[in-house]
Write a structure and sequence with these properties.
This protein starts with 14 loop residues before the first strand and ends in a 15-residue tail after the last strand. Helix 1 crosses helix 4 (90-105), helix 3 (58-68) crosses helix 4 (90-105) and helix 6 crosses helix 7 (161-175). The chain has a 3-stranded antiparallel beta sheet, with helices on both faces. A two-stranded parallel sheet has the order 2-3. A two-stranded antiparallel sheet has the order 6-9. The chain is globular and about 60 Å long. With 284 residues, the chain is α/β, with parallel strands linked by helices. The chain has helices at residues 26-38, 41-52, 58-68, 90-105, 118-127, 137-149, 161-175, 195-201, 206-212, 231-238, 253-257, and strands at 15-20, 81-86, 109-114, 132-136, 177-179, 190-192, 216-219, 242-246, 267-269. Strand 7, helix 10 (231-238) and strand 8 form a beta-alpha-beta unit.
């Protein structure tokens, strides 16, 4: 059961192509914008289900999606070599493969690399080792904001997509990044507990979880204790008391199954994961 973020800890997190500014050109951005226009949240859920549930590879799913949506270029409009990077979770890999397939159809030579978390791949994108990475508007805005203005900088991301993209564009320009259009597809962080726990304690929101639990074991990706929308945000925004943290994976199968075993609660999941159920466990 995904708990309601009733105090709006999370901001808009629409998918957006982030591009090294020196490598960007109009033909490349136009191809990436075609992809953004084709993806909304239900589509993203379907893509993720094909990989995470149906066990297809990201490259297989991407190839079929590009064909189904007629995203391939009708004639080459660009040239040169491009490296598309991806975070280390299946959604990012699938999006990267879609970008790559469309860019190849446009005349580019493309390699796809999976490179860890944002702390790792963003520096590679800024330096030019990577050319393009599928990113998330709100999360990247605040990541760049903290880098540029310090850990205590006032938030520039919000629930307003247009304003957040404007802030992201300005921050990106300073960092050496440019962006394609944001897609309608959004994948915010979410936190889940088991249905049994939610029913027993009548917990449907994060506020109710904080009021119910004297201390929880939180599961999520390794960077969660430092990310403002993960552990620090839960503690600051909700007063949630976190007794321990464990890092099974980033919203993946271990995070979804560990809570059912009683290993952690809540777990950070991605609502677009496409699984029949997202789970976490009882707090301790």
């Amino acid at each position: 059961v995904v708990l309601e973020d009733d105090k709006k800890l999370q901001t808009v997190d629409n998918i957006i192509p982030a591009v090294n500014a020196k490598a960007a050109n109009p033909a490349m951005i136009a191809l990436l914008d075609k992809v953004s226009a084709a993806i909304d949240t239900p589509t993203l859920v379907s893509l993720n289900r094909s990989v995470d549930v149906d066990r297809k590879t990201s490259s297989e799913v991407a190839k079929q999606f590009v064909a189904d949506k007629s995203l391939a270029a009708t004639s080459p409009s660009g040239s040169g070599s491009i490296v598309v990077g991806a975070g280390n979770f299946s959604e990012a890999s699938t999006l990267a493969e879609i970008y790559a397939a469309v860019l190849r159809s446009g005349g580019y030579t493309v390699n796809v690399q999976t490179i860890g978390n944002r702390e790792t791949y963003l520096s590679a994108l800024i330096s030019g080792q990577l050319t393009i990475v599928p990113e998330y508007v709100g999360t990247l805005t605040e990541f760049l904001n903290k880098q540029a203005n310090g850990a205590n900088a006032a938030a520039q991301a919000s629930s307003d997509l247009t304003k957040t993209v404007t802030a992201l564009t300005a921050l990106g320009k300073t960092a050496g990044l440019t962006f394609g259009k944001a897609s309608a597809a959004q994948d915010q962080n979410a936190f889940a507990v088991t249905k049994a726990f939610a029913d027993k304690h009548k917990v449907t929101t994060l506020t109710e979880l904080a009021a119910t639990c004297s201390g929880i074991v939180l599961g999520g990706p390794p960077e969660c204790p430092q990310r403002p929308f993960c552990q620090p945000g839960l503690a600051h925004k909700y007063g949630l008391r976190i007794a321990d943290f464990t890092a099974p994976d980033a919203g993946g199968p271990l995070t979804r199954t560990a809570p059912k075993k009683g290993d952690l609660a809540p777990g950070r999941v991605f609502p677009s994961a496409g699984h029949p159920s997202c789970a976490a466990a009882a707090a301790r």
